[in-house]
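User: Need the bound-state model for manganese (II) ion:
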Amino acid sequence: MNINPSQISSHNESLLADHKEKFDFLAQQLDKSGIDVENLIQKVQNLQIEVPSWALGTGGTRFGRFAGGGEPGNLIQKIEDVGVLNTLSRACDSISLHIPWDIPSDANAIKQELKTKGLKINSVNSNTFQDQPDQKHSYKFGSLCHTDKEVRKQAVDHNIEVIEYGKMLDANVLTVWLADGSSFPGQMDFRRAYSNTLSSLEEIYSKIPNEWQMLLEYKPFEPAFYHTVIPDWGTSYSMVTALGDKANTLVDLGHHLPNTNIEQIVATLQLLNKLGGFHFNDSKYADDDISVGSIKPYALFLIFLELVKGETTNMEPAWMIDASHNLKDPLQDLLQSLQNIHLNYAKALTVNLDELRHAQESNEVAQCQEILQNAFQLDLRPLVAEARFRAGGALNPLSAFKSLKVRENLIKERGTSTVATGL
Ligand SMILES: [Mn+2]
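Assistant: Bound-state model below.
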């Protein structure tokens, strides 16, 4: 399905007068506080978030999956869906692939489709957390950490194959997330598991092209319930530091124990110049993978504040949503997530960092809190809508999605019983 500019224009027309009134008022207020509105709009427009191929279909829980209709059944259709999202939101100009779920059978056709839709592929993800039908060795007891050298070699070879696919599609990031770990004390030797994993990663790292990054994601538990080989940022940091300059840590918001201070982790990794990537989602209890900003919006704002402070460092992290949905239409959900990312980024940008620093240096604790909460409680929705509108997007992507009957059209094209590959 394609949405053409005239459909977006007619959607915008009905909302424009109301929007202008709200935006003009907000712009005046921001201007009075010394905020450069045009610069803010530009920065919001520049923040593009990658959409992972696996977020386009209905996810499930370990108890069940309730698929919707019109889900993308192949890579071309997944690219089409990200095209629809980007046309509406102007916030996601790239798609992340998961190998083997998205093996490109015809790389040139994929590149052509990406070009037509104005999209690109930044990151490719390996998968050694499940067995594929034609696979010789099982990952039941781990992959890169496995006790058997042959299993480790198979997992290393898979990652190298993923790099090759990525090269064919002009990607520049390999993301490695491992399910490796143990569920019972004594099951695995911590030190040997760490050493085996690092040696395997070194072999993969040796094949990373010069202009690429290799990102190492951490997670404290699940699917392993006693120990995970790379449970936290410190372990990931120790490994990427040992690997070299092209290896960096990836922070997935859901990969922390409850109440972890993620903004501090972001600040520390950025200070150490090792924050390579970001997976946005939200959670209440564990790795819930629900919509960005739906549970803890203030935490999201505080994370963005640290990211904004680190903008002066030379490394631009790879931004991606990593979510999976069982209840909402996955495309509607992604539109909400993209909106919340832009909104909290914009709020963080309004913080006067000099003023904050002054309040911090003079230990004016109440003032520090006022500065942060004044920014967080600003309603910047008209500004984010203006940024999107000027970039050719919809003033209200979610209502445009509904009024243009996107899901109904996708069901008409693809049927009701489609299942997105990999899910
Ligand atoms: Mn992730």
